[in-house]
Amino acid sequence: MTRVLAIARHDAIAMAREPAAFVTLLLTPALLMLFVKPLYRSVLAQSGDTAANGAELAVPAMTVMFAFFMVGIASEAIFREHGWRTWDRLRVSPLRDWELLLGKVLPSYLMVLVLFAILFGLGVGVVGFRVRGSVPGVLAILLVLAAVVVSLAMALCAVSASRRQAFAYERLLALVFAGLGGALVPVALLPDWLEVPARLTPTYWAMRGFGDVVLAGRGFPAVLPELAALGAFVLVFGGVAVSRFRMDTARQHWD
Amino acid sequence: MLEITGLTKSYGDLRVLDGVDLTVGTGEVVGLLGPNGAGKTTLVSIVAGLRRADAGRVVALGADVTADPGAVRDRLGLAGQELGIYPVHTVAENLRLFGTLGGLRGPALAASVEDLADALELTDLLGRRAGTLSGGQKRRVHTACALVHRPRLVLLDEPTVGADPESRLRLLQLVRRLAAEGATVLYTTHYLGEIEDLDARVVILAGGTVRADGGVAELVAGHTRREIVLRFDGPPPELDWPGARRADAALHLPAADPATETVRALQLLGDGRTRLTGIEMGRASLEQAYLAILAGSGSGSGSAAADRVAAGPSGGTAGAAR
Ligand SMILES: Nc1ncnc2c1ncn2[C@@H]1O[C@H](COP(=O)(O)OP(=O)(O)OP(=O)(O)O)[C@@H](O)[C@H]1O
Ligand SMILES: [Mg+2]
Question: Where is this gene product found (chain B) (predicted)?
Answer without folding.
Answer: Cell membrane
